[in-house]
Structure formats: structure tokens, C-alpha cells
Amino acid sequence: MELFYSKDISAGGRVLDAEESGHCVKVLRHRRGDTIHVVDGHGMLYDCTIVDDNPRAVGFTVDRWVENYGSHDYWLEMAVCPPKNIDRFEWFAEKATEIGVDRITPLFGDYSERKVFKPERIGRLLVSAAKQSHKGTIPELVPATTVKEFLQQPREGLKLICYCDEATGKVDIKEVLADAQSVMPGSDRASQPKITIMIGPEGDFSRAEVTLALEQGWQPVSLGDSRLRIETAALVATAAVYLQFTR
């Protein structure tokens, strides 16, 4: 089943944009009367019928819809410092979307080698990855911010930080997530656990950043003994959450 994306369908829009229309008609050869499946990026899947097979503006009607399509039993924000090679961050964002993530926040740390972040290409990758992996929700990509600004923001739920320094008080991420699952209040989306995980830059978080995080109640966690690249650590953490909470 192929998925198409329309950001306007939930507000009454009944036309695919030019890119989606071209793919629908020119590549997949859909024609008037065919059934197509459209997601709105917020968890809804719509079964639709094509009424106009214009390759620049496919028109359709909505026959039925499904809520929480391709959803997961948690809410996860990954706050990650993009590496100097932005291709690696794009790879992480794509694969994390396929696994299950709700928000991606690019961070600039004291020791970050990258100081500029352009969201346009990654935004397109998120849409493509969500459709490919049959997700009704496209992760929110928020504007980049500094680590210190991020730590000052109020945040609910479980707050985990991963860094290389051999600090006391680190707990294996699997143990922390298992404890969180044991007190999970319910299975409905509103009561699912909220989890935020921070991953630092090539040079790790600075001592000042770690101190501030601990003061703000962040739990240091370990991802194991291997020394991981930024994007690998971020994906390992994403997968750990998915495997712990997937029923």
C-alpha cells in the first residue's frame, strides 16, 4: 500500500500537491476511480477515491479514515547535536522516523563543530521516511537551539542525557526505560510516557552543560561500552525506547 501526504486534508483539503500528484499519476499510474491512501502527518490515515487525475493536482474524495495509524506507545523527543557531516544527521533523522520518534530537536553545544542547521532537506526526508514506514505521523522538526537554552525550557516526563564522561550515577538506559514502563499509567495516547533524550556533539557536552543538566533533573544514562558516533548513539537510544515500549 502506497501512502501519499497532504498537510491540508484534515482541514478539508481534497487535492494533492504537485509533487505528490506527479508521483501518484506519472509514476504509480493511478487514474480516476482508483483508491489511494493519504496521511495528514498528525496520525490520521484516509482512504480516498481519485476524482481528478491531473498530474499536477490530483483531486479526491474521502471515504473513511483511521486514527493513530502506525503510532507507538510512547512520546519521544530526540535532542541531538548535528555532526559536522550533515549527511550523518540526515541518516539518523530518516531511520529514527522509520523506528518511531515524535520530535527532533537539533542542538548546538559548546563543543559543536557545526554551528549552522538548514532544515529544508531534512523536512522532506521525514515525510518520505514516514510514508515508507507506514506512519500516519511525521515527526516535528523544531528550530535549532543551544544546549543551554534547551535545558532552560520546561519539560515533562523522563529526561535522559548521554555523554562520554565516566560519571557516577549513570544507569543503563534499558533499566531506566524498564522502570518507566512499569509505572506507565495507561495505553491511551494522552497517558503514554514522555521521554526526551539528549545526545552531544563530537566533542561531547561541556562540563558546564552537564552540570546544568543535572541541576535541571536530567538522568545520565549509558548506551553500553562501545564508543559511538553521534548519529549511532542517537539511533541506539531511539531503538531502545521502541523495543522497550512496543507491545
Question: How would you characterize the overall build of this protein?
Answer:
The two termini are 23 Å apart. The chain folds into two domains: 3-66, Hypothetical PUA domain-like, domain 1 (Ribosomal Protein L25, Chain P, Beta Barrel); 75-245, Alpha/beta knot (3-Layer(aba) Sandwich). It has helices spanning 18-27, 86-99, 120-132, 147-152, 173-182, 207-215, 230-245, and strands at 3-5, 35-39, 45-52, 59-66, 75-80, 103-108, 140-141, 145-146, 158-162, 171-172, 194-199, 219-222. The strands form two sheets. Strands 5, 6, 7, 8, 9, 10, 11 and 12 form an eight-stranded parallel beta sheet that branches. Helix 2 runs parallel beside helix 3 and helix 2 (86-99) packs parallel to helix 7. Strand 5, helix 2 and strand 6 form a beta-alpha-beta unit. With 247 residues, it is α/β, with parallel strands linked by helices. The radius of gyration is 20 Å and the shape is elongated.
Topology:
Blueprint: E1 3-5, H1 18-27, E2 35-39, E3 45-52, E4 59-66, E5 75-80, H2 86-99, E6 103-108, H3 120-132, E7 140-141, E8 145-146, H4 147-152, E9 158-162, E10 171-172, H5 173-182, E11 194-199, H6 207-215, E12 219-222, H7 230-245
Parallel strand pairs: 1-2, 5-6, 5-11, 6-7, 6-8, 9-11, 9-12, 10-12
Antiparallel strand pairs: 2-3, 3-4
